[in-house]
Amino acid sequence: MNKFPIKILLLVLLSCINVIADDKARLIDQLDEAQDNLERLIDNNETVDRVNGYISVALIYAKLEQMRTAVTYWLDAIDFADTLENSSLKEQTRWQYAKFLMSYQAWRRAQEVLDEINERNMLQNDTQKVQWHLMYIRITHETGRSEYAIQKLQLLLKNTILINAEPSAELNARQLLGELYFANNLYAKSVATYLELIQNPTFKNIFSFEEQTYIVLSLSKVYRAIEDHENSYKLLKMQLNLLVTLRLHLTEKLSYVSLMREIAFDLINLEEFEEAELQLNSALSVLKGINTREKDIALAKVHFWLGELHLKRNQEIQAKLFFEQTLNVLSVENDNELEIKTLLRLGQILFDNTQSIDKATQFFKKANQLSRESQFDFYLLQSLDYLSEIAATKKIYEEAYRLRDQFFLVKRRLDLSEDRHQTMKISAPLEQKIFELNQQIMSKDKTNKMLRVELKKQKLNFNFNVLLLIVTVLLIIFIAILYQRHLKIRIDKNKKNLTLTKKKLEELSFKDPLTGCANKAVAVNVLSDAKKRADRELLPLSIAFIRLINLEQFKERWGQETSDFAIVAFCQHIKNNIGEKDTVARWSHDTFMLILPNSPIENSTNTVTAIKQFNASIVIDYFDDEQNAMKKNDLKVTTGVSRYLPRRN
User: In terms of pTM, does the model score above 0.70?
Assistant: First the structure.
């Protein structure tokens, strides 16, 4: 952005701040003057003027946004009025207090004041009774019971109380009914009510021009809700032409600006861009001659619609400039709805420029926050839609799903109920118009239903896909866990088998598998160690070889099993006849080796002689009959003993 527009924005902002400061200073001066006047009235013991003095101070405090102090002065006014014998003053003070509370949306407190008015029998005539009912019905609507408020108002319009009341009472009731119909999206009934009100012969005599303009603008909003911009434009143009014929005072100027702004809105929707720009520029010219706080909000709205105009023309740079000017004005004023709309438009412009998505996100988040605080579900829906799309664009899918769920929750709140567009009984000249409106609304409602069905289908499909994905993931995790457990069991089993095999292999590498005694490799190592020890300690070492000389014939005669048993028994016989430090090893199939460390030759000879007795003492328990007893003499043992004597060096 170049320097010139920045200077313009700063000048606009400074001018707005100066206007606010001037207004506040003026209100403080008025407050000082009103308080001085009140003190004077109290000193002079005035009555009626003293009540008005309390009220004047309360109203100024309210404009300064000091509501607690304002309410205190209102209560002082009521308490003082109650001390007087003037009953009309008591009624008038409470009526004004109730209207004051409603203007600041203190609905519960206003309802309490109205109940007090009714309990004190302060409703003197039918006009006051109608006014009381209308105020109570509006409070009922504002506190969330709209349908009940409409029913009460319809019954009031049929009540004979309106016959004796002033003509303005019925028109005020119909104006409120039109507003309630519109608030509940009963557009056809709202149009019918407003048209009956405007076509009433006493309409222009009873309502001031500002009130007439307000009603016309209200009807224009209903037309726009059903996208009938042509009728809205004609209606506003007629009111604007009527306004031009009058002398423009300050309030009329603001009404003039409002009408031109609303006309521009319809022209933009009718794509009459040049005429719309002409109307908005005319509104800016009128606003130059106004220097009040209300001017700033009007100026912000005109800037907003100039931004809308340029946005429709695809002139995004100019549109962005006007929207930024709108935000600058709203930074010192308070209009949440306009600020939300402006933030959404700026976010939309920046979102289309993919290089400014982060800045657009900031605008949408602020609009989302303000929409929640102000309970503007329609704008909340738009902000959620954009934020979810941005999250999806950034591939933050979890955030996108969360925002989409919020979107559908808000969407359900905005769905229209089935009975909102029922037609009402009206005069014959308006039946055709109402029929056409109902047809438009039904067509739109049908489209909305189709969209809702499609959205529901998409959401169901989305939920089903998510559920299927979750089930699939859980199934994969479950299978993976089972496979992991199975794999662990197999690994543990294989480890155990491997350990046993290793142990068995180790045993086989050191032991003879049949007899369990040492094998030839171990015998060589033991003999080598025994020799080294004998050399080192100069101890005698004896070595004996023992052989079963006819083992093969024994095996051929009596079989392998008997032969193996005989060898095992012979090995055990040898072990029973040697010492703990002696070693027996199976040297070959039929030969055993004895290593006898630190054993003199005499001891070795005795050991071998004992072993040779095996041929007479083979285990007889193995043979269970006398016929086989002869087997014990079938094995013969031969032995050989050698001695190793180390020498001193």
Answer: no
